[in-house]
Amino acid sequence: MTDSDIQSAILDMGRRARAAAHALVKLTSDQKNTILRAMADELLARESEILAANALDLERAEKNGLSNAMIDRLRLDSKRLAAIAQAVSDVAALPDPVGEKLTDWTRPNGLHIRKVRVPIGVIGIIFESRPNVTTDAASLCFKTGNATILRGGSEAIDSNRALAAALQAGGERAGLPADSVQLIPFTDRSSVEHMAQMDQFIDLIIPRGGRGLIEKVVSTARMPVIKHYDGVCHIYVHPDADLEMAANIIANSKCQKPGVCNALETLLIHQDIASTFAPIIGQRLADAGVQMRADPRLLPLLGDAALPATEEDWTTEYLELILSIKTVASVEEAIAHINRYGSHHTDSIITRDETVAAQFQHEVDSAVVMHNASTRFNDGGEFGFGAEIGISTDKLHARGPMGLAELTSYKYLVDGNGQVR
Amino acid sequence: MTDSDIQSAILDMGRRARAAAHALVKLTSDQKNTILRAMADELLARESEILAANALDLERAEKNGLSNAMIDRLRLDSKRLAAIAQAVSDVAALPDPVGEKLTDWTRPNGLHIRKVRVPIGVIGIIFESRPNVTTDAASLCFKTGNATILRGGSEAIDSNRALAAALQAGGERAGLPADSVQLIPFTDRSSVEHMAQMDQFIDLIIPRGGRGLIEKVVSTARMPVIKHYDGVCHIYVHPDADLEMAANIIANSKCQKPGVCNALETLLIHQDIASTFAPIIGQRLADAGVQMRADPRLLPLLGDAALPATEEDWTTEYLELILSIKTVASVEEAIAHINRYGSHHTDSIITRDETVAAQFQHEVDSAVVMHNASTRFNDGGEFGFGAEIGISTDKLHARGPMGLAELTSYKYLVDGNGQVR
Question: Which domains does chain B have, with CATH numbers?
C-alpha cells in the first residue's frame, strides 16, 4: 500500500468510527450488556478460527526468532481464550457510568444545570503484541459508549483480526452499530502517524506498550494521549515505623510481582534507624534473591549481596529483583528525593505518626501515595474499579488506575424557561 | 538570541517553575488569598510604571500600523488597571478547590482510599495581545496552587513585563515562592515551540487566542493542550415551541454580543412551522440589523434582508450580525445537522415537549446543551464559577466553562495498617 492509500483507509475508518460513536450514544445500559455477552459468546464459538489465526502468528514469531517470553505473550489456547471471553462477560456485569449525574444546581435566574457523564466518542488504542488487549480495550471502551479504532502490533495481526472480527460479528447480532469496533487490518508503520494526526475523528489515544511506543505517539499526536509510563516507586521508612510491618511491606512491594509498574524500585530509610533496620531488611531481601544497590553508608549494614548505587539507579525502573536503597536525614529529604527522581506513580511511607504521614501524602507529587501499605495496591482491581485499562501517569483527565469512569467525558445540560442575558 | 540560548533560557524557567510548584503545594488557602491581595495592591501601587510600559507598547503599535481595534485591546488606563487589580482580588474571595475530598471509600481489606483535588503543577499560558490575560491567568492558576509560565504576544511585551513583575514582587512580599509567576521576557517566536516540547516541566498548556495560535501549539505540544476553539452554536425550534420565547432567545443569542464564541451562528426551524415562524423571526432579525443566509425554502419567508446560504455557511463562525437559517424535517435531522456541522460548543432547543428536549440534550454531542435558554449562558460567570479561564471545546479533562476546579488534578491517598498483596 502507498502512504496515501494508508492515509485514506485510516481517514475512512475514522469517519465511520465517528458515525458509530453517534449511534452508540443511543444504546441503553441493558442493550450494551447484552451486546457484550454476545461478543463473549462469539469469541467462544469461534475458538477454532481464533486459535488457527493465532497459530499463524506463532509460526511467524518462531521463524522471526522472537524470544520465548514474547512468544508466550502471543500464545492463545482454549484456556486463555476462555479467560478472554470471561473478561468480556465480566465487563457486562459492571455498573455503567454513562448517564450518571455528577452534580446539579440552580442559578438565581432559574436555570437548572446538570453535569452528566457521557462517552468520550472515539478512542484509538495502539498496542504491542498481547492479543488480549484487543478484547479488553474494546470491551471497556464499548461499555462506556465509545467507538474504538485498534492498532495492534504486527506480531499478533492474525490473532487480532480474528478477535476483532468475533467482537464485531457477535456484537452486531445483538444490535452493535456497524464500525463500533474497528481493527486496522494492515501493519504498515505509518498507520500510527496517520491515526495520531486524525484529531477530527479520534478524541483520545491510549498507547499500551513500552516507552518507545508511547514516545512515538506523544511526539506525533494532535489529540490528547493518556500515558502509562514507568513506575519508579518508593517506600520511605520513618524512625517510628513498626519495623516488622515495614519489612513485610517492602518485601511484598518488591518481590510479589517485580515486573510491573507498581513494584517497588527504591527504598529510603531514615538515618536514625539505618543501623537497626538495614540488617533486618538486608537479610530479608537477600533471602528473597533481591540484589541491592545502596549508598556508601548502608553498604556495610546490608550484607554481602549489596553493591554500591550510582546516580542512575535512583531513576531506574528495574522491573526485576533489584532494589536501590538510600538513607535520608528527614521526611523532607525523602519527599524531595521522590519528587526529583521518581516517576509520580506510587510511593508509600511507613510510620506510626499520622502528622508525618499526612505531610508525606500531601507533598509527594504522585498519583497514589500510600501510608502503611504495599505499593502493589495501585491497581484498578485492588481499588475496586472492577477492570482497568491501565495506570495513568498523566495529571490531566485521568491519574492513577483508569477504570470505566475514566473512559467517559461529561457535558452540561441546562434547562430554562425562556432565560436570556 | 540564538535558538540554543532561547531553548536553554526556557528550560531554566521550566526547572524553576517545577521547584515553585513543589513549594506552592505547601501554602494554605489563607496564605494564597493574602498573596493574591498583595498582588492586587502592587498592581495599583505600580500604576505609573505599568502605564508607562503600556505607552511603549501603544507607541510601537501605532508605528507598526495596528488596527484601532487591536490598539484598543492593548490600551491600559487607570480605570482598566483598577479593574485588573480588582479581578485579582476577586479571585482571592473565591472558594479554594485544592484539598477538596472528591470521594472516599474503604476496601474489604481495610485500605481506606481518598481521592483529593491537587494542583496540576506547572501551567503554560500562551496568549496574544490582551495584557489582562497576564493577570487573569496567573491569578487563577496561582489560586489553584499552580506555577505559571506566561508567553504573551510581542505587541504587549512591555505591559506584560510590568504586570508580571508587579504580581511576582507584590506576591513575594506576602510569601509567594520565587518563580511562581514567570513571564518569558523575550518575544522570539521559537519560544512557543520550546515551551511546547518541555513536557518534563510543563504539565498543561492553555493557548488563549485565535485558531492560528492554537493550531501551532497543538501541532508541536508534547503535553496536554486545552483548546478553546470556535463556537458554531445552534438553536433548533421544534413545532410546539412558544414562538415568542423562541424569537426572544434567538435574538438574544445572536445579537446581545455577536463577537463571542457562545453567540448563535445557525438557526434550525422545523419545516411544519416555517411558514408561521420564519416571517416573525425574519422581521425581528432584520430590525436588529442581522444579515440572514437561508435555504431556498425559507428565503421567500424571511424578507428582503435574506440571502441564499451556501454549504460553507453551515460551518462558519461569523462572530458578527450574520445568521445562517435552515429548515429541518425532524428533531433527528436537527441533531444530525448539529453533530455534523457544529463545533460541539453550545446548542439549544426551543420546545414545550420534555421528551423531545431530553432526546436533543442526550444526542447532541456538545459541551453545553440548552433547553429553552439562550446560548449566551455557556459562560463561567453565568454558571456561577466566579471566574473562568475560558470555554473548553475539548472532551478530556475539561469541557465547557473552565473555572478553578478545572485547573486542578487529583491524587489518591491510601491509608493502611500493613496491608500486602
Answer: 3-227+402-414 (3.40.605.10), 233-382 (3.40.309.10)
